[in-house]
């Protein structure tokens, strides 16, 4: 045989040998024993011609049948470890003993798309995106009126405290770390927009005019402190100022113009400057506000006690929203500048903050049931309220169910009951220093709210102007998100630090001092009273709502269409046609 003929025959045999694996593994794998292709990473198929697409946790998973072909669809335990399709194993059926989240295995295109085997790119189903279809899209990209965020981001930023928009109220930040923490997404809408895709408009809120005939709305009240202890000379009002960040009913934020800081003697100018700053906010966000100096009789400031600082020059102003009912976020001092005579800047010995008042705006009225007893205006006391039958022709034998740890309401003030003296009087925990109630003022109570002191923890210290107080020991029932009532003011717990010394609790508002005298709490052992609402919520009346509950809100325009007999942009005015 000639050498040339031998080489040609050998070459033919080599060609036949390489052709034993299908398609020569398409250049994407190695031909192994039994003429089977061992595909390189990201390739699959008997000839390695098909691309494998990216994997993600399956949004939805189902039992898959007899995957290991043993004629049993309920093979026990994990199977297919290190396979191309299930690299982290799977099982054939949903075992009742499966652990939480075990259904969300890694799957191609997260089981929410079709893999293009020629390109290795996922074609995602509508509503999903990402290289592995691993993210749920926000509907219509929030229509440009919101921000698309993951569930973990939404949970972490739920507390709007310190942010430029939003109304924190009872929302608390938390850590969400389940399988879909960065998979599920939703729109966080801008103020005044709502809906899954932020396409729906919100309407102006108002107080139901029918509620006004029987109840007393609680309008948000707050105290603005501005003061300086001059290092020398006196406060320079012409060069001292502060600016407030204020928020409307839906949490939209605005910055006021500079508000001059006046000396105590010029408090009337200070009050006028604050009211003007609110009324100057564009688009009549605040069409009315009532402000006055703390402690002035016959005004919103009557009975408001403040913490006096020796040699301090400045003012303490009490304000109440008049035309912005319901849940409101308190204003915050955005920036301030203090100067003494000659425009000399001073950064120590100053304070500028907004503290909580004793009237916290709410959308719901929980204290709705009228007692058979009324306030007896013939006697006056700061902690003991004399009572008498609301109907003089009757002689009720007991004030029950009002008892210790009940919250009662007289006009727009709330009080925590310490004890009841049968049919003669009600003693409250913290004193009332406001205007005297009229004789026969109605006493309301709640059949559904419960109030209980934490079994172990006490409030030890709380500085005026601080949103953090000290406790003595770890609480038993107090948790982040709890609503507490202290010194006649409601607060929501934002965070707790129980591994530090001292142990502390941070709430959503700054403290205005004791109800009796406005001073700080120090070396005390005050009860930590937790207010609980029933679940599901019952026994309340939602008296603040869109269109005041007396009209329909157009979600396209954000404009109220009032029922017959009701007018104004929020339908809160009743006329003769309603009768």
Automatic annotation (TrEMBL):
It comes from the Eukaryota. Keywords: Disulfide bond, Signal. Residues 37-48, 122-133, 560-571 form the EGF-like domain. Transmembrane segments: none annotated. Residues 1-19 form the signal peptide. PANTHER family: EGF-LIKE DOMAIN-CONTAINING PROTEIN, MULTIPLE EPIDERMAL GROWTH FACTOR-LIKE DOMAINS PROTEIN. This is EGF-like domain-containing protein. It comes from Aphanomyces invadans. The lineage of its organism: Eukaryota, Sar, Stramenopiles, Oomycota, Saprolegniomycetes.
